[in-house]
Amino acid sequence: xxxxxKHFTVSxxxxxxxxxxxxxxxxxxxxxxxxxxxxxxxxxxxxxxxFTLVVDITEDQMKKIIGQLERQVExxxxxxxxxxxxxxxxxxxxxxxxxxxxxxxxxxxxxxxxNARIVTVNKEFFVLEKSGxxxxxxLLYRELSAFGIMxxxxxxxxxVTKNQMEISKxxxxxxx
Amino acid sequence: xxxxxxxxxxxQKDDASVRITGSEAIVKCLLEENVKTVYGYPGGAxxxxxxxxxxxxxxxxxxxxxxxxxxxHAAQGYARISGDVGVAIATSGPGxxxxxxxxxxxxxxxxxxxxxxxxxxSHLLGSDAFQETDIVGISxxxxxxxxxxxxxxxxxxxxxxxxxxxxxxxxxPVLIDITKDAQFEEFDFNYEKCKGIRSYxxxxxxxxxxxxxxAKLINEAKKPLIVWGQGVILGKAEKEFKAVIxxxxxxSAWTILGVSAIPTSHPLNVGMVGMHGNYAPNVLTNECDVLxxxxxxxxxxxxxxxxxxxxxxxxIHFEIDPAEVDKNVKxxxxxxxDAKDSLEKLLPLLKENTHIEWYQKFxxxxxxxxxxxxKKDLYPTKEGLTMGEVLKEINTQTxxxxxxxxxxxxxxxxxxxxxxxxxxxxxxxxxxxxTMGFGLPAAIGAKMAAPEREVISICGDGGYQxxxxxxxxxxxxxxxxxxxxLNNDFLGMVRxxxxxxxxxxxxxxxxxxxDFVAIAKGYYLNAKRVTKREELAGAVAEMVASKExxxxxxxxxxxxxxxxxxxxxxxxxxxxxx
Lengths: 176, 578
Hints:
The complex is a heterodimer of chains A (176) and B (578). Chain A has 176 residues and is α+β, with helices and mostly antiparallel strands. Chain A is 35% helix and 40% strand. Chain B is built from 24 helices and 20 strands. In chain B, helix 14 links the parallel strand 12 and strand 13. Chain B is globular and about 70 Å long.
C-alpha cells in the first residue's frame, strides 16, 4: 500500500530565518521530487512561520521526508495530511478585457455561477478573483479562456487540518 | 533599594561587555568555546580575522594548511580523535568552495565542525564582487546548520549557536559566513554559551516501553547479532556497550566508523559487516533471529540488497536521529535516544546469557575466511608484498596502540579489516562520502589533537596525491605524523571492479607515479621506500621509533584484490571469498 502515489499536503512550522526555504526545497530536490505547490506565511503563533507544500509521492517517501524536515535545526515540526484530513483552498486571479464584460453576456453568467468576485474594473480590463478547490478554478479557467484571458495566476494551496497540530504545547514545553 | 540594585546589575552588565571589532569577537568566541587549534587559509575577505589571529597567536594556534580542503579534513581528524569540535577557516569565493568536500564528508560521517568563511562586504552582496560566492546557498545541503552574519553584533550569539549545534545530538558541520564589514565593525561584546534552541531537540526522549520491548526480544533471542556503528563512540558509550554485550553474550560486529569502540581482540568482537567486511557477520546477518543495530544507519555498503537483508530477523534499532529509523531497514523496535543513556538503562533489563552454539558458527566461518583470504593477506608466500602484511607489521610494532587514519580505497578496507585497536576513537577514515585525499590532512589534525598518540596515516598512491601538498603543513608545523603509502601504481579499488565487472578494461586506473620518497625529502621529511619483504620490519621499526614525521612508501603487489566482497547490490550472505 505504501507504494501507491498519493497527494499530500505538508505543513511545516519553522523559525522565520533567511535560507530556510532553500534548505527545505533542497530536501525535495535531492530526492528528485517535484513540489506541486508552495505557500509560506505567518502562522497562528507569533514569530513562527508556516510552509504549506503539496507533493505527489508514496506514503513511505512522505514519512522519510518528514523525518528529514524535522532534522533541520530551524524546523519546529512537520506534518503531512491527505486531502480528506484538511480543509484547503487555493486562490486565482483572472485579468480580462473590460469590453468583454459588456459584449459577452455569457461572461456575466459565468461570474455569477462561479461565485467569483470582481476585484477591480477600469476601462481596459477587469480582475476576477476566485478561491476554492483546484477543480473549480480549472473550470472557471476553461470557461473564460474561450473569451481570452489577459493574465492568469493561481496561488499555492493553503490548508488547515481537521485535527489539532500541537505546536503551541511544544513551544511552551521548551520555555519550561 | 530596588533602584540601586538595578543600577548595580546594569553596571555589572556593562563590565561584562567590551567594545571590540567583529573579528576580535570571533577569536574571543573561539576562546570561550575552548578552541586551541584552528586550520585555515587566509585571503581578502577574512583578513581582519587573520589580523586578530596574529595578535592572539599565544592563545590560539592557527595552522596554515596548503589547501582549504586540507583544513577541513585536518579539523575532522582533530574532531574524530578528540571528540571536540574541529574548526576550519577560509576566505570567500574559492576559499569557501574548497571547504565543501570536507564539509560534505563531515555531514555524512556526523563529525562536529565549525567552518568560518569570510564574505565580501555586505553592500556588495549579490553584485558578483571579486571572490563573491553564495557559500550559504552552496553549503546548505551539506551542513547541519549554516548562517550568514552581516553585523558584528550577531557574532557572539551565532557562533555560540554554531558550536552548540555542531556538537550536540547527532554531530555535524556548521558553516558561518561573515561579511568583511561585520569583521571590521565595533560593538559591545558579551558572550553567553548556547544552552538550547526551541526548534531543535538534539536528543529525542527515550521511550521506556521501547527499552522493555527491546530487552524482551534480546532475552528471548536464540541467535542475536549486534551491529554497532559510530554512535557508540560519538555517544561516549563504549563502557556501557561493552557491559551490554558481555552480559547478554551477543556476538557483535562493527561498521568501519564504529570499530575501536571495543578492542579488536574482545572475544565477542566478530568483525566487520559490509561490502569488504568479514565472512561470518555478513553471512550470519541472514541467519540471526534478532538484529540489534546500535548507532549505525544501515548504509548500502553495509546492507547490500535491502530486499534480502536480514529478512528473517526482528530488528531493534538504537538511534539518536529519528530520521534514521525505518529509513533503509524497517525496525520492529526503535529505541530513540543517546546510546550511553539507552544502553545504561537496557543493561539491568537483560538476562545474563551465552550463545555458545551460535557463537561457534562465527568461529567456524572465521576459519573458512582465514583459510581462503586472511592467510594469504597476512602470511603471503608469493614474492610481492601484500597490504595486509604491512598492517600486521604495524600492529606488531605499535602493539595495537596506534590511531590509524586511512584514505579511501583498497588500502582503507585492508586497514579497517586488519588494524588492531585497543583504544577508542582510533580508526579515522572517510566512511560515508568516501573522500580520496582525506587520509593525509586528517592525520595531521589527529596527531595535533592527540600528540601523545602514535598516529599513522595509511594512504593509497591515488588518494595520497589528491592532498599531497599537506606534506608542507607537516613540515612547517613539525607534526610527528607517520605516513604510509601502499603503492600499487593503480587506483586499486576501481581497478578491482574493472577486473571483476568490466572484463579487465582498466580505463584510467593505472597511475604513472612520481618518486614519492624524493617528494617527501623535498619537504625535508625522513623517508624510505620498501620493495622487498625482508626490508619491511626494519622500515616499520624505524618509522615507529621516529620522534619526527616519517614517510614510508611500500611498493605492494599491483593487482591484488580485496576479499571478501559483496558485489554492489548483492545479498550480504552471497559474499565472495575470491
